[in-house]
Amino acid sequence: MRGVTRPDIEWPRRTERLELRLPTDEDITRVLEWRNHPDVRRWLIRTTVEPEAFRRAWLDSIDDPLDHAAFVHLDGEVMGLVSLSVSDGLGQHEPGKEAWTASEGMLGYTFAPGYSGKGYATETARALIDLGFGELGLHRITAACFADNHASWRVMEKLGMRREQHGVQDSWHAELGWVDGYTYAILREEWAAVPR
User: Fold this and answer.
1) d(CA 138, CA 127)
2) Structural domain tally of the chain?
3) Which of the given ranges, 82-86, 93-97, 98-102, 192-196, has the highest pLDDT on average?
4) What is the per-residue pLDDT across 133-178, written as a single tens digit (0 to 9) for each?
5) For the chain, where are the alpha helices, taking DSSP H only?
6) Residue 149 domain-assigned?
7) Domain-located, residue 179
């Protein structure tokens, strides 16, 4: 997308219990200690990652105006990662009217084993949705997960997102084969009405 510049986003960002920071080489090393753990990778499309490619991708994300990604810290320990990837909304551009560039975000989050069930994913995702609508001016934010990942889709529902798609065998998983997936979404005006 031409002409998109990285907004002046302040990092680190605080939530009630967590700190979201841009990735560092040291943090990436810590994440790699748990990223390929069976309890983590079973819910990811890319079940395992090659360490140097993973490191490069995260460090490159820092300067990408369409990638707002951070590592999640609890009491100084990196225990999760979150991303909001920005893309163009669907639609036809009419001459003389604004094109829908950088109007949609795709939310993602992953946490280390042992941190589930404590509200950290909801707290982290809420912070990125606030960033997307409040500072990036997005129109719509989506998120997706495997249908069997009950914890992930419950987070999306707690955030006020609506299930828009149940894709039957729409996702290839390297260990499980074809599995069902869910897609959720929320609009900026809907987010403004969600109780905090």
Assistant:
1) 14
2) 1
3) 82-86
4) 999 999 999 999 999 999 999 999 999 999 999 999 998 888 889 9
5) 25-32, 38-41, 51-61, 120-130, 150-158, 188-192
6) yes
7) yes
